[in-house]
Amino acid sequence: MSGFEPGDPVYADRVRASFGRQKIMVLIGAQLVRLAPGECEIHLLFKPELSQQHGYYHGGIIGTIADSAGGYAAFTLMPRDASVLTVEYKMNLLAPGDGELLIARGRVLKAGRTLVVARVDAGVVKNGRETLCATLLQTLMTMHGRPDQ
Amino acid sequence: MSGFEPGDPVYADRVRASFGRQKIMVLIGAQLVRLAPGECEIHLLFKPELSQQHGYYHGGIIGTIADSAGGYAAFTLMPRDASVLTVEYKMNLLAPGDGELLIARGRVLKAGRTLVVARVDAGVVKNGRETLCATLLQTLMTMHGRPDQ
Amino acid sequence: MSGFEPGDPVYADRVRASFGRQKIMVLIGAQLVRLAPGECEIHLLFKPELSQQHGYYHGGIIGTIADSAGGYAAFTLMPRDASVLTVEYKMNLLAPGDGELLIARGRVLKAGRTLVVARVDAGVVKNGRETLCATLLQTLMTMHGRPDQ
Amino acid sequence: MSGFEPGDPVYADRVRASFGRQKIMVLIGAQLVRLAPGECEIHLLFKPELSQQHGYYHGGIIGTIADSAGGYAAFTLMPRDASVLTVEYKMNLLAPGDGELLIARGRVLKAGRTLVVARVDAGVVKNGRETLCATLLQTLMTMHGRPDQ
Questions:
Q1: What is the pTM of this model?
Q2: Are residues D137 and A92, on separate chains, in Cβ contact within 8 Å?
Q3: B: neighbours with 3+ CB pairs under 8 Å?
């Protein structure tokens, strides 16, 4: 339990609809698997097309699903007439992205009226064992009066 | 002119070969268009498959080509028996990634024996006019004794 | 020339007055030496009381004057009824802070209505020769309707 | 319990001696109050000399004790013949530093042979109630063969 109140009773529908409009998620094959107020989890199965020069998940792809996980964690708390914008993030890569599944878990640390700060941890699962491979600290902005669609 | 000495007389071949092994660059359609000691420029034409919920380049995709641009800028300075690893980066998104072409220009700020710090600016070109849409500050590591291939 | 318009014709008085209220600047001995629209330069003479365990400027002190240099660079562009808040910054330490004078130069990269992004470079001067010892990427917020004093 | 093994059986003496050589900690009045393998906690009582323009702890001072808290958390894990260097950190300010006591708690997330990644949370205590006011993500380097003193 996160202790956050959702920004809208039907926040989950709104978040899933927005995620569904992120065409990049289709291209890479990412799936939104869990939502709670202030939380979002995205999964991405490995395929060679996602790899960097050593055959692991490219760091930028880890950043891509982590950015969306943190952004949608924040979006769960935003009012219906708002959209979410990533202001910035910083990512530390802690271990090679070597595995068959990548999991990004975004969680809001602080939700202000305009700015939201989120943390995202990304784990890579190899032979069923998960290793923390990246962690992000991210700032997001609530765009009031600009509905997502 | 960057003032840096390449780490290897045939650095360009080595960098291009490594970039060629990043399969994610093929998936998204990125191209390495310029190399110089301490510098690397990558281009990415827009296609709807790269977009976030508002139809612009997804921030994570901007981060993906910027990560590679900074990483390969650093790699130009590394010895033949080394590979490059991204330690971390921080990216500020300055304007929507709205345009037909994305350009990431990586440039080494400081090259130490083990760590290299790079800056990457990403511009988006719309109707022929380029706007700075993101800037990154990135730390990379030279993996001595571990050739890239 | 920065190309920015000041937020207020008497911006320099407003910035200097705010800097004068930062008592930490007196404790460490920092001085605001230059202002222009979107730019601010702060100097700090070395004294042993500012040092870390090896006798150099402590990284946090480099961060302290850099934070103020970027913050006041942003503040030059803000309207009279606003105050400035640091949202976040990321600092890379590029060389030891070994010298007799530390110079932080803040420069606005992008000024939005609410958020401002600044870059700060910090140089350390030893025997008259300046070395880049840190670089920051910083996000600031305009607090509209809340004058600084 | 952190699960980390100290780098040296007398790590606490070595860390305390190094902290004792950080003269900036004396100037601002910071105290190292707790150490464990991979963990370090530093306290700083408020005094007006530490304040920014609104009378709160200056963000750079929060960064200063947080940098040391993360650095010494990392140093607990390093061998006797090594010293610790901050490579970079990113700090988000989450709430005003308004209170009578500032507490920085550093904790190692990942300890590699050369690089260590730490997280630092800073809380400000006002009327006995603690509020998270900043969080940092930090990269540190083990300088093998260069003892701290």
A1: 0.97
A2: yes
A3: A, C, D
